[in-house]
């Protein structure tokens, strides 16, 4: 499999302006000595020089040098254990100066420290079946979302991995992707092979204050508004919308990096659906 | 009427009598008479209203009216009527007059005789009264004479009578004096003989007199003697009282005598209670010793018997004697006794409770109930005697507490019995199967579990029922009539057990492993069926049974049958859904492994169906058999008789041409997509992990859906060579041939399998499908 290719590389803004521009191979990620690559992830912040790739049971950290024309293997670690262990997916945490990576293999989720390439936490049997995707909360350290073949989406606090913080069970088949909204992290998008995309409002575990926290904060300076605030129910975690435009399994969902209210989902039949967060909810969050 | 008739006689009255007799006119006349009466009593208005053309009562021309004026009437007649009519009315009038006359005569004759006889009677009465008056006068004079005589006799006897009275008085006085002079010697003799009662009585009789005449020296001497003797007597009595041992009645007698001697009641009362306490404490110590740590304690019945006769009996005696002796003490004395009883009673209760607590482990309810009954019954006597001490209430409380604990214990017993049943089932399921025999008879296991659980419930009900038996003394307490039946037995025992059973079953659904390895799927299936059976029949049966046995009179709200049924149904549904998931997962894993571990790019041309597919079909058949043991068939969509042929033709010819035939040519994928999309627009969305219904077909459909969807997703992740695609084609056809019969809607299987093949074709750089006929041959051979 031509998995060692790193197609695309960096595209400069002017490249995007001319759609006919052909892709250009910048470099290879090392020799193919580690088996088939399951996942490649860029460092989410910093100078964009570091890339993690997951191949079979190896986790490889690459350093892209000389304007990304050459990739040097900086460090690596491998997973040892019974049977054939294979990484299925990985995700780079945007927190802690980008020193943490989470990976998934079979039903387990593991966290790695990229400085020492050692395992820092492990959620054994995070899901009943295969874990399909992971995402870090962009605004709240330690919070991680995972989804898998048991139709569930689970939210974890990586400091205490004994129990999930929250579990969603809305899909009726494997959940293939889970994504936090980049700026309003209560919005969580999930795509599943039951051909549905579900947008959930996870207020209770988001970084934005809710419920009594708001009341307490407003208590001191806004005495007159208090009765009104009191009467308002604290918002509940809920499913905002279920999008059923797809006719086949949805394999990828993601938020727009430009507009925080825009998201896209891609399904097997080649249909790309772009949706907006409902206007009412948008105003509710903003105001 | 008579006046009217007389007036009517005026003009043209002749002997032209009426041809008809008076009988014919009778009703007419009667009606007229009625009219008069009614007029008199003011009823005419009503009458007039009833009869529209009625005569006006004020009409002067109305013959029967009160305001009849003969002149006006005649004038009117003369003016208005022709001759014939005048003649007629004349005859009519004459007839009426005649009739009236004869009536009047009859009445006079009838009443004349009566008048005469009345006059005779009055005359006779007058004579009789005159005679009686004379006799009364004579009687009065006789009485006067008698009174006179009587007065004279009493006057003569007066004198003698007074003298006799005086003599009698002297005699009595002398007798009393004699008694007083003899008193000291009598008292001494009594004391010597031990006839304390007699002595005290003598002393009591003399005391007042001596007190009164103590200023006379002779009496003084007697009094002194008496006092000395009395002091000695009191001394001896006290001695006897303190020595005790001679039983409560004798002590009571002593105290009674001492009281009569005028000893201070307060002190005696204290002492009496102290004595009683000592004796009762001894009883309590005896009971405690029986309780002791040594195991061969007597059975609870014996214990309560001893407690009842020893302690409670003693307490009764003390209380009865006390109340009799110290009744004069008033409320303060009663209070003292109540405190005494309360204190000792509470100590007794502590002992009884300790004994009963030892009994809690035991299973013999009848013995316990009998013991409680005796305990309660015995305490009713002092309870009546000592209402203030609240012994009966405390005893009832203890009984209630014990009953409540019993209920809890039964609930636990039921739960553990149920868990035991489940363990047995697990063992039976895990036991190595006899070769060639499919499953260890799930239906029998189910029947075993159901019957043993039911018999446990019945046994519990029966043994709890003892508490409410008629002959048990506490069964008519309000607690046992109401709350115990409804809240205790029905709610906490029966409903509680059913709930906990559902809960236990549900716990199997979300076992922490989630891989289904912990619970054998057959157990899930069995439990689901059990819960469903409960929902349909058993719950209502058990509750009816309970309600019948325990005539629930309490008005407190109870859980309705429907709620419980809904809970059981929900549990059954969850279990079955979980079963489907677990079984689906097993097959899915098999399919996934088979797809993921194979190198599809470099497979050889398919010669036969892969073994794993046969395995899938075998497993599905096994599941089908397993489910079939417990669940009914269920409904499928209607299908033609020769289903397999038809599906085959649909699948391989029309479908193939319609759907992935275009993908024979490399330029076709767009068309395929388009076609498949259009197809999907018209087919319904398949909910893969959807709740199932309670029948075999639905369960199997669920499992197959999950498996095939997994196969589809796995295939999409792989890349296929030409032969790889062909292998998938063969496998799918094989599955198609064998799986359709399990599902409710075979269209579903077609759809998913088509999807698999189409996906494989898309993932194939060189999609050259196999000839349908070859596929068929391979499948039939395999």
UniProtKB/TrEMBL annotation, chain A:
Q: Which UniProt keywords apply?
A: Repeat, WD repeat
**Has UniProt tagged this entry with the keyword Repeat?**
yes
- What's the short name of a Pfam family annotated to this entry? Beta-prop_EIPR1
What's the protein called, per UniProt?
A: EARP and GARP complex-interacting protein 1
Quote the SMART domains the UniProt record gives: WD40
Say which family it is in: Belongs to the WD repeat EIPR1 family.
Matches recorded under Gene3D superfamilies: YVTN repeat-like/Quinoprotein amine dehydrogenase
Q: Which gene encodes it?
A: EIPR1
TrEMBL record, chain B:
* GO biological process, any: lysosomal transport
Which InterPro entries does the record cross-reference, listed alphabetically? Answer: Cullin_repeat-like_dom_sf, Vps51
A Gene Ontology term for the protein's cellular component:
membrane
The membrane-spanning stretches of this chain are none
Record field: compositional bias (Gly residues)? 9-19
Q: Please provide an example of a Pfam family that matches this protein in its UniProt record.
A: VPS51_Exo84_N
Sorted alphabetically, the keyword list is: Coiled coil, Endosome, Golgi apparatus, Lipid transport, Protein transport, Transport
What are the boundaries of the region Disordered? 1-31
Subcellular localization is given as: Golgi apparatus, trans-Golgi network; Recycling endosome
Q: Which domain of life is it from?
A: Eukaryota
- Stated role: Involved in retrograde transport from early and late endosomes to the late Golgi. The GARP complex is required for the maintenance of protein retrieval from endosomes to the TGN, acid hydrolase sorting, lysosome function, endosomal cholesterol traffic and autophagy. Acts as component of the EARP complex that is involved in endocytic recycling.
Its subunit composition reads:
Component of the Golgi-associated retrograde protein (GARP) complex. Component of the endosome-associated retrograde protein (EARP) complex.
Would you identify the family this protein belongs to, as annotated? Belongs to the VPS51 family.
Listed name of the protein:
Vacuolar protein sorting-associated protein 51 homolog
């Amino acid at each position: 499999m031509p998995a060692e290719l790193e197609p695309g590389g960096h595209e400069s803004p002017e490249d995007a302006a001319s759609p006919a521009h052909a892709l250009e191979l910048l470099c290879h990620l090392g020799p193919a000595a580690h088996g088939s690559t399951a996942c490649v992830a860029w460092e989410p912040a910093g100078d964009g020089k570091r890339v993690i790739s997951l191949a079979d049971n190896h986790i490889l950290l690459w350093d892209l040098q000389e304007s990304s024309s050459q990739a040097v293997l900086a460090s690596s670690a491998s997973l040892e254990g019974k049977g054939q262990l294979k990484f299925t997916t990985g995700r780079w945490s945007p927190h802690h100066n980008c020193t943490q990576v989470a990976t998934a293999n079979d039903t387990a989720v593991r966290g790695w420290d990229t400085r020492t390439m050692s395992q820092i936490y492990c959620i054994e049997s995070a899901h009943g079946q295969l874990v399909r995707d992971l995402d870090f909360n962009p605004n709240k350290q330690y919070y991680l979302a995972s989804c898998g073949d048991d139709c569930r989406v689970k939210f974890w606090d990586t400091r205490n991995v004994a129990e999930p913080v929250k579990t969603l069970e809305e899909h009726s088949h494997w959940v293939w992707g889970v994504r936090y909204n980049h700026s309003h992290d209560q919005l969580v998008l999930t795509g599943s092979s039951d051909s549905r995309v579900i947008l959930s409002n996870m207020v209770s575990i988001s970084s934005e204050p809710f419920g009594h926290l708001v009341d307490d904060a407003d208590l001191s300076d806004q005495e007159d508004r208090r009765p009104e605030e009191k009467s308002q129910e604290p918002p509940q975690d809920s499913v905002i919308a279920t999008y059923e435009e797809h006719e086949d399994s949805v394999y990828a969902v993601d938020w727009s990096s430009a507009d925080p209210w825009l998201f896209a989902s891609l399904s097997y039949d080649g249909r790309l659906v772009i949706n907006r967060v409902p206007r009412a909810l948008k105003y509710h969050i903003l105001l | 009427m008579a006046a009217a008739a007389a007036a009517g006689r005026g003009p043209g009255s002749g002997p032209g009598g009426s041809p008809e007799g008076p009988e014919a006119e009778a009703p007419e006349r009667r009606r007229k008479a009625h009219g008069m009466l009614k007029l008199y009593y003011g009823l005419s208005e009503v009458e007039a209203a009833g009869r529209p053309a009625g005569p006006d009562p004020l009409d002067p021309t109305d013959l029967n009216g009160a305001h009849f004026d003969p002149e006006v009437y005649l004038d009117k007649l003369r003016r208005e009527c022709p001759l014939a009519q005048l003649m007629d009315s004349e005859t009519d009038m004459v007839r009426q007059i005649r009739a009236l006359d004869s009536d009047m005569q009859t009445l006079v004759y009838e009443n004349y005789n009566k008048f005469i006889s009345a006059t005779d009677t009055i005359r006779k009465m007058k004579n009789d009264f005159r005679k009686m008056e004379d006799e009364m006068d004579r009687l009065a004079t006789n009485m006067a004479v008698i009174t006179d005589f009587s007065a004279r006799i009493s006057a003569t006897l007066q004198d003698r009578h007074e003298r006799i009275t005086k003599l009698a008085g002297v005699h009595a006085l002398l007798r009393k004096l004699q008694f007083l002079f003899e008193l000291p010697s009598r008292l001494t003799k009594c004391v010597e003989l031990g006839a304390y009662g007699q002595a005290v009585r003598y002393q009591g009789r003399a005391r007042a007199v001596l007190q009164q005449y103590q200023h006379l020296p002779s009496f003084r001497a007697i009094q002194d003697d008496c006092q000395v003797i009395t002091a000695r007597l009191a001394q001896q009595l006290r001695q006897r009282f303190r020595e005790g041992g001679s039983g409560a009645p004798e002590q009571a007698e002593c105290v009674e005598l001492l009281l009569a001697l005028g000893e201070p009641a307060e002190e005696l009362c204290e002492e009496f209670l102290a004595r009683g306490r000592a004796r009762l404490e001894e009883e309590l110590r005896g009971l405690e010793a029986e309780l002791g740590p040594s195991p061969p304690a007597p059975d609870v019945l014996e214990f309560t018997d001893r407690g009842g006769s020893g302690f409670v009996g003693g307490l009764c005696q003390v209380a009865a004697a006390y109340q009799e002796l110290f009744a004069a003490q008033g409320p303060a004395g009663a209070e003292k006794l109540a405190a005494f009883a309360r204190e000792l009673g509470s100590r007794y209760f502590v002992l009884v409770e300790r004994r009963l607590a030892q009994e809690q482990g035991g299973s013999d309810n009848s013995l316990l109930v009998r013991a409680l009954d005796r305990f309660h019954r015995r305490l009713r006597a002092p309870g009546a005697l000592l209402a203030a001490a609240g012994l009966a209430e405390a005893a009832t409380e203890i009984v209630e507490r014990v009953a409540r604990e019993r209920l809890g214990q039964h609930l636990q017993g039921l739960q553990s019995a149920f868990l035991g049943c489940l363990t047995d089932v697990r063992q039976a399921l895990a036991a190595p199967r006899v070769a060639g025999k499919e499953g260890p008879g799930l239906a029998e296991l189910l029947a075993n579990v159901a019957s043993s659980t039911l018999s446990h419930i019945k046994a519990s009900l029966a043994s709890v029922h003892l508490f409410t038996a008629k002959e048990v003394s506490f069964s008519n307490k309000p607690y046992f009539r109401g709350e115990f039946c409804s809240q205790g037995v029905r709610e906490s025992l029966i409903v509680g057990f059913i709930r906990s059973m559902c809960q236990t079953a549900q716990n199997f659904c979300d076992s922490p492993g989630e891989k289904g390895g912990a619970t054998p799927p057959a157990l899930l299936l069995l439990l689901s069926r059990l819960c469903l059976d409960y929902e349909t029949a058993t719950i209502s049966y058990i509750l009816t049974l309970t309600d019948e046995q325990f005539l629930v009179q309490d008005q407190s709200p109870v859980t309705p049958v429907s709620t419980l049924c809904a809970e059981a149904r929900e549990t059954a549904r969850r279990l079955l859904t979980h079963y489907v998931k677990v079984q689906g997962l097993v097959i899915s894993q098999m399919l996934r492994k088979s797809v993921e571990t194979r190198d599809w790019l470099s497979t050889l041309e398919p010669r036969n169906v892969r073994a794993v597919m046969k395995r899938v079909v075998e497993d599905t058949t096994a599941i089908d058999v397993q489910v079939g043991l417990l669940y009914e068939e269920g409904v499928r969509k209607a299908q033609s008789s020769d289903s397999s042929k038809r599906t085959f033709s649909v699948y391989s010819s029309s479908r193939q041409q319609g759907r992935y035939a275009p993908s024979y040519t490399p330029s076709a994928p767009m068309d395929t997509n388009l076609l498949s999309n259009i197809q999907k627009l018209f087919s319904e969305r398949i909910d893969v992990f959807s709740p199932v219904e309670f029948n075999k077909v639905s369960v199997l459909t669920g499992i197959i859906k999950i498996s095939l969807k997994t196969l589809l997703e796995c295939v999409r992740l792989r890349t296929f060579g030409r032969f790889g695609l062909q292998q998938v084609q063969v496998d799918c056809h094989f599955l198609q041939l064998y799986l359709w019969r399990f599902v409710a809607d075979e269209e579903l299987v077609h759809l998913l399998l088509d999807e698999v093949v189409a996906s494989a074709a898309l993932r194939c750089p060189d999609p050259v499908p196999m000839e349908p006929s070859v596929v068929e041959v391979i499948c039939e051979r395999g």
